[in-house]
């Protein structure tokens, strides 16, 4: 249908629209008009993706000068594919309505692993190996060598792309990963490089977070995206953690040993080259003396080594004299690695600021800050000069060089923690150096500064005001939308006590209490008896899950449970978990019914949907707080408190509740779906926890359902399930939670939508 | 799996003897402590590996896994004591970088025994030439070091301050909560008011308190000075921008515009002729004309003549009563009533 959103003609590819989708468009349009950033929360299953795409495409069509590009960031490959499907639907609709080819080019980008069509390289399983092998076939010097000697293998697809692909732009249309591969096969062009080349002039780009947030990758891939773009981060509730991970470095003893090996390789290569071909080293040396930036850096295939964020004025400067010649630099690297090795030889945990580390490295091995800052850049240059084609071995050394560069560049917002052993195994020596980023705003700041509009959206972003604080930006729009429903199809309940009136809680003090564990077990058994099909349970940690299951086994609860449903458990092993998932789905599909025990923050809680019969009930056993004794977390909490005035407890609760909301949201994937949400912990009913749940859940959480016992909970479930089991057709929804164009345009509905927009 | 440190002489490993300590000397070869005691009982001897003469006093505990690095660091420390020029001592960055590379080459040569004679000569030459600068720089910290020290101190200060602050704040909060609860119970026990209204007012009061709390927590931290100039020049977050911004220019209040009015002189006598007319009226006939040097400064005879005339004519009409009245009139004409009083 064609909509009029605040004066903008929007083509919406469906015949019906949800009212919240329309309000979402209104808010989004306002943000685009204001050229500011926005934060939008809308429940999952209400068609966020379509809404976003149709509005932004319409906006691009209406204001081609103000908005040139849409960059859509998602988390996983399946999610990227889903977005591409929606986009294709939208484009088809445009074509049908306008009756001609649309001049819009949309494409998905993923790693080489997902896009490679080289017959042998594409067989590799690991992403790193594919990258390394691709580099060894396409690097500029390999190709130069090939020109001299035909025996040197190269990639024919890259050659094809290089020879012809750059002149012929990709014809307009929508390309997902498979389409790109197919197009590459027919033309004999490399799809990966084709996609990367096309990014600069495509209208819509869909790729993973890392291409924008990880400074090492963003530098190469997303450098040329213009300012007048809109960037969308979908499923962004964990965006702060992604930012932090992209700037953090972890160094283990094994990694350092590998570094020593690669340094030896470097040494021998240098001495060989000195004997045979000293000209190249001299050339590099001269360039470094002149302080010229590497000219070859622009060559797109030599991307494997890129330095982390450095201010541009440093990049312009010449490399300091101490590390100018290759031998000196290798000796320098050796000292750095040896120094870090001595630091790892500790008996107790050490926490240090970057400034302290710099001072110590200066006194111990006489390394100044400035050469340290150039380490990553210099290493990249050296590897390029030495023409080392197998990069996979060098990744540990690259990691250390990144660490050196980061530690000497940023003195604020980072901390160094050296742990001699893991907390769980204090007798096994396993020293690890964590260089941990504490400030999630550092990595995302360039994105906010560079693009005119950044949209952060997810099904669960509550409490909204936390995100601007921890990401340090000023949104122009910050809105949470609820779901309009024709029937109360979610039933959130807080169960705080068992039938014996013993309070249920995963508090540390009561964790081992058999009464609590038994009450949790009874709750699950009774719910399993009352609820049809699939039930998903979430525990706070793997450890907790294991202890509870083992004591349930002793108490005979597992036997009772298996009388009603089959039981599956998520483990830390990915393959095992996916097998359990497949069988769980099978059991639900054939009507046997099943229970899946899994862990909040685990693989199941993020990204796997249990729609309809796959998840009729979600049980949350306890509040999923993070492991608060972790030193990295402690350091981060302290930093948040000092820099952003966020109190420790506030952040911990915020973090726990966003994960709880994620888990609960698993069972609701649309308006025809229905599901029970049981929060089994006394503490959930406190105001500070309850108020942090997303609005669309809070709305349905009545005061009477906030302090239930097991028996009451089951009673309510039974009544509600009977109600939900009644036939429910589209006609029931129409006019309330589903609108036709006429209904949308009716004055009454417009008024309602206006009210809703203002009410939040 | 891990290859343990081994003494090359007696083959003891760290695994078999956890107390074993490896030592290194100037040549960069390791020996365990007991071997050192055994071989160097006389105070000096030859290295068992490279046969170079060593003193026992020079043995130190091996710090790094690779003894060669220990050796290099030793040499480096020695050399850098002499070669301690700073960037400030050079006119351009390029020259400084060249100097750095030269130092690095010297160290590299010493470590790998390349051309020892030439290198030592170079060092001696340098020592002679740069005695003054070396001496001066020894007592001076480089800018970078100073920055680091400053930063560390700031961190320390901030940490202790913060720790105290938050502990106090938390204690205070707890106390307040406790007090509020006790007050509520007291009121419920002893007052005659409706229990519901008491509870309601209590809830209101705690809500108001909770609102205040975050503000109170926010205040103290603003007192800590943030040094944003140091870290790479990239300011972290938006906070940096506020500290740099200019204060807005204070806005002027809306006053009426200034307008010039010519001053009125009261001579109390006949008006003197205007300065331009003096020449025409032939006043200059009786006074000395200004010479060239006087005219150069802009002086003319008209000035002194005019001054003299003003002085001569001024005050001729003076009479005590009259001046009193005019003075009053001139100063404040607004105070009419006092004026009337005096005339009457």
From TrEMBL, chain A:
<dbReference type="InterPro" id="IPR010614">
    <property type="entry name" value="RAD3-like_helicase_DEAD"/>
</dbReference>
<dbReference type="InterPro" id="IPR006554">
    <property type="entry name" value="Helicase-like_DEXD_c2"/>
</dbReference>
<keyword id="KW-0347">Helicase</keyword>
<dbReference type="GO" id="GO:0005524">
    <property type="term" value="F:ATP binding"/>
</dbReference>
<keyword id="KW-0547">Nucleotide-binding</keyword>
<keyword id="KW-0378">Hydrolase</keyword>
<keyword id="KW-0479">Metal-binding</keyword>
<dbReference type="InterPro" id="IPR014013">
    <property type="entry name" value="Helic_SF1/SF2_ATP-bd_DinG/Rad3"/>
</dbReference>
<dbReference type="InterPro" id="IPR013020">
    <property type="entry name" value="Rad3/Chl1-like"/>
</dbReference>
<keyword id="KW-0411">Iron-sulfur</keyword>
<dbReference type="GO" id="GO:0006366">
    <property type="term" value="P:transcription by RNA polymerase II"/>
</dbReference>
<keyword id="KW-0238">DNA-binding</keyword>
<keyword id="KW-0067">ATP-binding</keyword>
<dbReference type="GO" id="GO:0003684">
    <property type="term" value="F:damaged DNA binding"/>
</dbReference>
<keyword id="KW-0004">4Fe-4S</keyword>
<dbReference type="GO" id="GO:0046872">
    <property type="term" value="F:metal ion binding"/>
</dbReference>
<dbReference type="InterPro" id="IPR006555">
    <property type="entry name" value="ATP-dep_Helicase_C"/>
</dbReference>
<keyword id="KW-0227">DNA damage</keyword>
<dbReference type="GO" id="GO:0051539">
    <property type="term" value="F:4 iron, 4 sulfur cluster binding"/>
</dbReference>
<dbReference type="GO" id="GO:0016818">
    <property type="term" value="F:hydrolase activity, acting on acid anhydrides, in phosphorus-containing anhydrides"/>
</dbReference>
<keyword id="KW-0408">Iron</keyword>
<protein>
    <recommendedName>
        <fullName>General transcription and DNA repair factor IIH helicase subunit XPD</fullName>
        <ecNumber>5.6.2.3</ecNumber>
    </recommendedName>
</protein>
From TrEMBL, chain B:
<dbReference type="GO" id="GO:0061575">
    <property type="term" value="F:cyclin-dependent protein serine/threonine kinase activator activity"/>
</dbReference>
<dbReference type="InterPro" id="IPR015877">
    <property type="entry name" value="MAT1_centre"/>
</dbReference>
<dbReference type="Pfam" id="PF25811">
    <property type="entry name" value="CAK-anch_MAT1"/>
</dbReference>
<dbReference type="GO" id="GO:0008270">
    <property type="term" value="F:zinc ion binding"/>
</dbReference>
<dbReference type="InterPro" id="IPR001841">
    <property type="entry name" value="Znf_RING"/>
</dbReference>
<keyword id="KW-0175">Coiled coil</keyword>
<dbReference type="GO" id="GO:0006289">
    <property type="term" value="P:nucleotide-excision repair"/>
</dbReference>
<dbReference type="InterPro" id="IPR013083">
    <property type="entry name" value="Znf_RING/FYVE/PHD"/>
</dbReference>
<keyword id="KW-0479">Metal-binding</keyword>
<dbReference type="InterPro" id="IPR017907">
    <property type="entry name" value="Znf_RING_CS"/>
</dbReference>
<dbReference type="GO" id="GO:0006357">
    <property type="term" value="P:regulation of transcription by RNA polymerase II"/>
</dbReference>
<keyword id="KW-0862">Zinc</keyword>
<keyword id="KW-0863">Zinc-finger</keyword>
<dbReference type="InterPro" id="IPR057657">
    <property type="entry name" value="MAT1_CAK-anch"/>
</dbReference>
<dbReference type="Pfam" id="PF17121">
    <property type="entry name" value="zf-C3HC4_5"/>
</dbReference>
<dbReference type="InterPro" id="IPR004575">
    <property type="entry name" value="MAT1/Tfb3"/>
</dbReference>
<dbReference type="Pfam" id="PF06391">
    <property type="entry name" value="MAT1"/>
</dbReference>
<protein>
    <recommendedName>
        <fullName>CDK-activating kinase assembly factor MAT1</fullName>
    </recommendedName>
</protein>
<feature type="domain" description="RING-type">
    <location>
        <begin position="7"/>
        <end position="51"/>
    </location>
</feature>
<keyword id="KW-0539">Nucleus</keyword>
<dbReference type="GO" id="GO:0005675">
    <property type="term" value="C:transcription factor TFIIH holo complex"/>
</dbReference>
<feature type="coiled-coil region">
    <location>
        <begin position="123"/>
        <end position="158"/>
    </location>
</feature>
